[in-house]
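Please fill in the sequence for the structure shown.

STRUCTURE ENCODING:
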């Protein structure tokens, strides 16, 4: 893989606006009539959210990530897809580069809801 060009310089204040937190994926369930999406039930310490992610084409068994911690963007507007509402976005590595994506995970377990950045 050849790394993509670095994106244009941004104001550092933009980074402070993105709320990226660690959550534990408690359950992965199929979304009927979707070739790509699954629903993740993710625990963030003080609450649980449903986050839809396009994992069906990337993983033979999307349920293999149950119980794993990962990074999620939480302060996006809710988005309705395939009749369900997604309350955030899985922050993964590789999708934009055309390689098989992997979870962005903490090095060691940390409390759910911990902020990145």
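FILLED IN BY: designer on duty
SEQUENCE:
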């Amino acid at each position: 893989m050849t790394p993509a060009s670095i994106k244009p310089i941004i104001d550092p204040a933009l980074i402070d606006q993105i709320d990226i937190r660690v959550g534990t994926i408690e359950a992965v369930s199929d979304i009927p009539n979707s070739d790509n999406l699954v629903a993740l039930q993710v625990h963030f310490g003080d609450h649980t959210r449903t986050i839809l992610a396009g994992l069906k084409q990337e993983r033979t068994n999307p349920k293999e990530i149950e119980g794993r911690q990962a990074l999620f963007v939480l302060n996006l507007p809710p988005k309705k897809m395939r009749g369900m509402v997604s309350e955030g976005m899985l922050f993964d590595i590789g999708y934009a580069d055309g390689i098989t994506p992997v979870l962005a995970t903490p090095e060691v377990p940390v409390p759910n809801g911990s902020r990145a950045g």
